[in-house]
Write a structure and sequence with these properties.
Layout: E1 17-25, H1 32-42, H2 53-79, H3 86-105, E2 111-119, H4 124-133, E3 138-143, H5 150-165, E4 172-175, H6 183-200, E5 205-211, H7 215-219, H8 224-239, E6 246-251, H9 264-273, E7 278-282, H10 291-294, H11 296-307, E8 312-316, H12 323-337, H13 347-359
Parallel strand pairs: 1-2, 1-3, 3-4, 5-6, 5-7, 7-8
Helix pairs in contact: 1-2, 3-12, 6-8, 6-12, 9-11
């Protein structure tokens, strides 16, 4: 396998620590063409769709990419912002806020945080290339998925590994696998919910909605289902919330295969029919608001609950770049940065290093 040339290197240049904050992805625009390009990349990932390629490709290109993009584009249009896709907007803000918090927590340190999308732009390759070009040779890959799944976290690792296979100079890499039960993350969720309860009041039932996965992933050993339930249990304990007033559900089903249950929308309808008048939904598997939370839950979920007889529905936003959310992300990053030197060499030390390299024949 051929490798790409390494970025131009100058001896004595700064060597910051790099963090790549990776989220799932988004189309470039709320249009059918942009959504088609995004879905083609997303649904071609064998981690996402585990159907044999010879069977899946005709379905994907012959049916799904002809029918689904226009429908999905209309949904994206309902949540699109003047700055662009909500997921990309929040991920960029999180990256900037994490970099700022690291600078405050470690005066004199030099840490660069780059946002990246597993599918779409900016890509994982682009983010890693930017960090390498800035001189980073120690890079922490931080997928923004609290719960591990092969289709999300595992796929992010695949993208990083593919970039490494094509790179001549592979930096020292660390990879965050999950933080579903991290105390700072659980506390951030609880703090965010309590703050919203101060305005909205407490619901009859709090529904925790996680992204769905085919049931076969659980049977094949993916820990996602178990980690979702653990997050919900720890959240209930942190809130002091009665376990019988909390539901764990799974949203975003796709295709005809059996998916993890119970499903979110049917659960909301059932709660309304059972006489629960006030329901709130939180999505602890999403670190940032996106189509799946803002349209599927805040719009479609609300409509389903009210149509079935419910009276009050609230969607509780993701942590996004809130103070509590960023404190949790900082805590996770710091755990995995341990042992790396965050304080850069002085100008004099770097210049001395450069002079030694030049004396040995280095070009720059």
């Amino acid at each position: 396998m051929s490798t790409s040339p390494s970025p131009a290197f100058r001896h004595g240049q700064p060597a910051p620590i790099g963090i790549l904050l990776v989220n799932l992805g988004t189309p470039d625009a709320p249009t059918a063409d942009a959504v088609r390009r995004y879905l083609a990349q997303f649904l071609s990932d064998p981690r996402v769709v585990e159907i044999p390629r010879l069977l899946w490709k005709p379905i994907l290109h012959g049916i799904i990419l002809r029918v689904r993009p226009a429908k999905s584009a209309r949904k994206y249009a309902t949540v699109w912002t003047p700055e662009g896709s909500p997921l990309l907007v929040w991920t960029r803000r999180q990256a900037a806020a994490l970099q700022a918090r690291l600078a405050l927590a470690h005066p004199g340190s030099q840490v660069l945080v780059e946002p990246a999308m597993r599918y779409g732009q900016p890509s994982v390759d682009q983010g890693l290339d930017r960090l390498m070009a800035a001189g980073a040779r120690c890079i922490l890959v931080l997928p923004a998925y609290p719960q591990y799944s092969g289709a999300t976290t595992g796929s992010a690792f695949d993208a990083v590994a593919a970039w490494g296979q094509a790179s001549r100079w592979v930096p020292e890499l660390r990879f965050v696998g999950q933080y579903h039960d991290d105390p700072a993350y659980i506390q951030a969720l609880a703090t965010s919910i309590r703050r919203q309860w101060a305005t909205l009041g407490e619901p009859d039932v709090l529904v925790t909605s996680f992204h769905g996965m085919p049931e076969r992933t659980l049977l094949l050993g993916d820990p996602y289902h178990c980690q979702c339930h653990k997050t919900a249990r720890l959240l209930a304990e942190a809130l002091g919330w009665p376990r019988e007033q909390l539901r764990v559900t799974f949203q975003s089903r796709f295709g005809k295969a059996k998916w993890l249950e119970p499903a979110t929308e049917p659960t909301l309808e059932a709660l309304a029919r059972e006489g629960h008048r006030h329901v709130q939904v939180v999505c602890p598997g999403f670190s940032a608001d996106c189509l799946e939370t803002l349209e599927e839950i805040a719009q479609e979920g609300r409509a389903a609950f009210l149509a079935a007889g419910g009276q009050t529905f609230h969607y509780l936003p993701c942590l996004n770049d809130s103070d509590e959310g960023m404190a949790a992300l900082l805590a996770v990053a710091e755990q995995h940065l341990a042992g790396w030197t965050l304080t850069p060499a002085t100008d004099a030390e770097r210049e001395a290093s450069r002079q030694r390299a030049l004396a040995l024949g280095a070009a720059q």
